[in-house]
Amino acid sequence: MAPKTVVIIGGSFGGLKVARGLLKDVPVAAPRILAKPKAFSKNQYLIPIKDGFTSYGENFKLIVGTATEIDETNRAITILRSDTDDRFTLEYDYLVIASGSSTASATDGALAPFKRFGSSDLSEQISNIQKSIASAKSIIIGGAGPIGIELVGELTEARRTEAIITLVSATKQLLPMLKKSSGDTAEKILKRRGVRIIKGSKVTNAVNQGFSWEVTLSDGQILNADLYISAVGVTPNNSFIPKEFLDKNGWVEVDEQFHVTGSKNKNIYAIGDITALPTRTVMKIDERFPILVDNLKADILKSASKRPTYVTSAEIEKSKAMMFVPIGAGAGTGQMMGMTPWSWVVKMIKGKDFFVPKAASLAGLA
């Protein structure tokens, strides 16, 4: 069989897991890093991708750049290199789209450290955010999902009584993707720590005025603080993806074998945050990537064996959701087997280190 070229767009958990899965078988990002700079060493969370694939020699090639176009007819993608700003075309036999998502406010000037692009020096970017947090006397966090809750929890421990912290939630329940009891637990813990919580109103505008931020809410309130951090949702990284691949919200639609349904051929796959599948978490990657890899291997090898499938829905995902949300190192909430876990369980499983020491293995790099 002639060698096949598999191009994977995206170097985060989904793309890396697929790459390693194929190479084996075919011939974090934690709020604590920002709030508590000394909690982890940089080599625990800034992990070189190339080092994890050295054993595969010429079978693996890492290109640092931005995909700008997919030419399905000619089976090629256009790439803008990060180091030279040169554009070139890369042909593929099979394509895996794992381009992920970006913080929804990453382009409007807000401080959005979780999936923010624009700087090639991630270490410098993190360091600047750490300094901003350390010097702020008042902080507003927009978003009451897991990241927002975890960040506020870390801030209440790191800054204690030194900073006034406000959490803005667009929904009446914190952690709206989980059971009400999970959100209620988070709210009780944060209120005990003196956090001001505004529910049922979302951030509509945030303006950096130099030494302070002016944050406007949907109910007309105007808040002021030394620092505003956005933890509000994500948008798909889809600027290079043909429109026929996308649903109405811009996410890539896939079938039960992770083929892109809008593609004319069966040689384009997608996985991770970029897909329209519900529940975009790292843990879901472990559940889904083996199915994609097995189907892609079967395509490459022209296997006639039965293909594995992945069937889900928003209702199924919510009913079996498993999520641990630390609120600082000593408390937390979440959902496990349909129940809200005890705070000490969250502390023991995730709260002590946010899985940061396991980041390389979670990404398939160790």
Automatic annotation (TrEMBL):
<dbReference type="Pfam" id="PF07992">
    <property type="entry name" value="Pyr_redox_2"/>
</dbReference>
<dbReference type="GO" id="GO:0004174">
    <property type="term" value="F:electron-transferring-flavoprotein dehydrogenase activity"/>
</dbReference>
<dbReference type="InterPro" id="IPR023753">
    <property type="entry name" value="FAD/NAD-binding_dom"/>
</dbReference>
<dbReference type="GO" id="GO:0005737">
    <property type="term" value="C:cytoplasm"/>
</dbReference>
<comment type="similarity">
    <text>Belongs to the FAD-dependent oxidoreductase family.</text>
</comment>
<dbReference type="GO" id="GO:0050660">
    <property type="term" value="F:flavin adenine dinucleotide binding"/>
</dbReference>
<feature type="domain" description="FAD/NAD(P)-binding">
    <location>
        <begin position="5"/>
        <end position="279"/>
    </location>
</feature>
<dbReference type="InterPro" id="IPR036188">
    <property type="entry name" value="FAD/NAD-bd_sf"/>
</dbReference>
<keyword id="KW-0285">Flavoprotein</keyword>
<protein>
    <submittedName>
        <fullName>Apoptosis-inducing factor, putative</fullName>
    </submittedName>
</protein>
<keyword id="KW-0560">Oxidoreductase</keyword>
<keyword id="KW-0274">FAD</keyword>
